[in-house]
Amino acid sequence: MCAMSVEILPCPPERFGELLRTAEIGFSEDAPDDLIERVRKISDPERFVAALDAGQIVGTSGVFSVSLSVPGGELPTGGVTWVTVLPSHRRRGILRGMMRQMIDDCHARNEPLAMLWASEASIYQRFGYGLGTWSMNLEAETMQVRFAGDPAGTGSFRMIPAGEGMDLVAPVYDAARSQRAGFLGRTPDWWVGQLPRTDKDAHGGEARRLVVYETESGVEGYAVYKTKPDWGVRGPNGTLTVDEAVGSTTRGTREIWRFLFGVDLVRTLKTWRLPTDHPLLGLVAEPRRLGITLGDGVWLRIVDVKTALEGRTYGLAGNATGGLNFELQDEYCPWNAGRWRLDVSDGHGVAQRTDKPADLALDANALASLFLGGFKATALAAAGRVGELRPGSLAAADALFPTVLQPWCPQEF
Ligand SMILES: CC(C)(COP(=O)(O)OP(=O)(O)OC[C@H]1O[C@@H](n2cnc3c(N)ncnc32)[C@H](O)[C@@H]1OP(=O)(O)O)[C@@H](O)C(=O)NCCC(=O)NCCS
């Protein structure tokens, strides 16, 4: 329970900046004025929640109204963000109180999903969040990485000045988004936060850059990255960090990554959040030299089971036919709990209550993991997260939920 003296309320609009600055303490990161302004532009201020102790902000959180790509479409989703509690007030139930308010608000707004990036994975599972994507991370020695094929021999690269380029790259992002679940839709105000805003930043040499790869067909790939210079006795030793690299074609993806691995004075390339089926794995001659590690990516919460299940398509080609009864355990959102039947015809699902015997038993976390298509019921069952009550039901679920391409959320928020 929340400490008696702490109230949890929508943040008064005039305290929005103060709310985000309070989060500096929990995150140990600056929230400068320009960041606050950018967040304000993509926010619905009434969706930011403050925990107040005698009027002082001691807890912060917010929900962005986003549109998440899901298999075969997109769904309105609450993007949970800026979650902190002051160290002086930790472990008194303040996060629990804020999360309750945010999830109930998503429910009231008919947002069937909530999602977030977790600072620590164990925090949110108690609220029914399940892993939606893996994050493949790279820490590669650039000189050791060779591409298996030759350069396209066509097309060119262009460095785009800070503050420009949205019109060039948005179609590439949208094309990639149409192929995978997990991408957020981006308004122009969201793009402002993703693209370089200044040619030079306070840290010298670490300003973000935008490069596009163009052919006779237009822009086919882009990357946002920054470089950090370093020198050693053996010469240049810089690090290039890729924020986002996206291609709309096979060629665009290949050439933009070839570019990133070829930037002069760089010896280490780092990036995070790639899907585990990223084409780069097949593009390089020695995949182990990419220095791959795997971590948790985005976490998903099914807020409304019926709307969510009816809002995606099923089957690898999106045209499966089949059905499943499942018993869902969901103490945190009790309106979802109980027995459901999912009937799928030509890829489209209808979810209804049933009193027929269940084929599978699972909790809200496992259903969330299945939802974006990146996890198989059989694999979750092997970890004890799904129970098969009727033989053959795991295989039936595996014919419905997984997608051809892994879900990918290229952006943290
Ligand atoms: C994470 C944070 C917001 C938790 O806030 P809090 O008010 O202390 O959390 P609560 O007291 O409401 O805890 C609710 C439950 O989560 C658990 N929990 C809280 N923080 C946790 C953590 N970091 N790891 C694991 N479990 C955690 C609590 O033990 C409690 O469990 P219970 O229900 O079994 O009793 C706070 O510690 C914080 O600001 N951390 C630094 C910033 C951060 O990581 N923010 C999250 C960004 S995604």
Can you give me a brief rundown of this structure?
This protein is of the alpha+beta class and 413 residues long. It has three domains: 6-111, Gcn5-related N-acetyltransferase (GNAT) (Aminopeptidase, 3-Layer(aba) Sandwich), CATH 3.40.630; 136-295, 3-Layer(aba) Sandwich (Aminopeptidase), CATH 3.40.630; 299-400, Nonspecific Lipid-transfer Protein, Chain A (2-Layer Sandwich).
Which short descriptors sum up this protein?
single chain; 413 residues; Aminopeptidase; 3 domains; seven-stranded mixed beta sheet; 11 helices; binds coenzyme A
The first-to-last residue Cα distance is 28 Å
In the CATH classification, which architecture of the largest domain applies?
3-Layer(aba) Sandwich
Strand content: 25-35%
The parts where pLDDT drops under 50 for at least 5 residues are none
Q: Can you count the helices?
A: 11
